[in-house]
Amino acid sequence: MNAVDTTVEKLRAQCLSRGASGIQDLARFFRRLDGNRSRSLDARELQRGLAELGLALDMAEAEGVCKHWDRDGSGTVDLDEFLRALRPPMSQAREAVIAAAFAKLDQSGDGVVTVDDLQGAYSGRAHPKVTLAEFQDYYSGVSASVDTDEEFVAMMTSAWRL
Q1: What is the spatial distance between Cα 45 and Cα 59, in angstroms, rounded to a whole number?
Q2: Which of 82, 89, 2 is nearest to 42 (CA)?
Q3: What residues form DSSP beta bridges with 131?
Q4: 44, pLDDT greater than 90
Q5: Fewer CB atoms inside 10 A, N or C side of the chain?
Q6: Cross-strand partners of 114
Q7: What percent of the chain stands above pLDDT 90?
């Protein structure tokens, strides 16, 4: 585990220990850290906010975390990037049921769901292609709001008729 991953795990643990277990709590924490109200966090804002939680980072570490979380290359971390970074990893049971749902959609078996795969079942105008990684990313967000693996697997099995 590298230094950024270690920092993320510490931050996740700190947030959870202080009751920031839900998406709304994490969003509130994010807004509190966003001192200039830009709707994104730069390394300095992140560093100051994490210090409040007792997680002291030097500027190089804070910049490393920002760079690691910054998926769009903006140089800052927006709320979606923040939430994606802090949500806990999914269990193998959840990943397996998501992969099964994706496989059901991927009629051609090429690892990409296209409009041809979905013809008659879904309008693909907005997203003509969906990869397994995108599908997993979406359901990872859904997973964060479901308490147990059993409930998540039951929901996915029912929704996708697996």
Answers
A1: 10
A2: 82
A3: 112
A4: yes
A5: N
A6: 129
A7: 17
pTM for the structure as a whole: 0.60
Sign of CA dihedral 123, 23, 36, 10: negative
Measure the CA–CA gap between 83 and 110, rounded to whole angstroms: 30
Residue 50 token pair: 């994490």
Q: Which residue has the tokens 């009751």?
A: 19
Of 96, 115, 118, 123, nearest to 105 by C-alpha is 118
Whole-angstrom distance, CA of residue 71 vs CA of residue 64: 13
Crossing angle of helices 132-143 and 79-86, in 10° steps, is: 80
Give the single-character DSSP code of 130: E
How confident is the model over 23-43, as pLDDT tens digits? 667 778 888 888 898 999 999
* 50 within 8 A of 56, measured Cβ to Cβ: yes
Sequence-separated (6 or more) residues with CB below 8 Å from residue 138 = none
The whole-angstrom separation of Cα 39 and Cα 135 is: 26
Q: Can you read off the two tokens belonging to residue 143?
A: 């997973």
